[in-house]
Amino acid sequence: MKLAFFGDVVGKPGRSAVQSHLPGLKARLRLDFVVVNGENAAGGFGLTSQIAEEFFAAGADCLTLGDHAWDQREALTYIEREPRLLRPLNYPPAARAPGKGAELFTLADGRRVGVVQLQGNVFMRQSLACPFAAADSALDQMPLGAVADAIIVDIHCEATSEKMAMGHHCDGRASLVVGSHTHVPTADTMILTGGTAYQTDAGMCGDYDSVIGMQKEGSLYRFQSQLPGERYQPAIGEGTLCGTYVETDDRTGLAVRIEPIRIGGRLSPQAPG
Question: What is the CATH number of the domain that holds 225?
Answer without folding.
Answer: 3.60.21.10
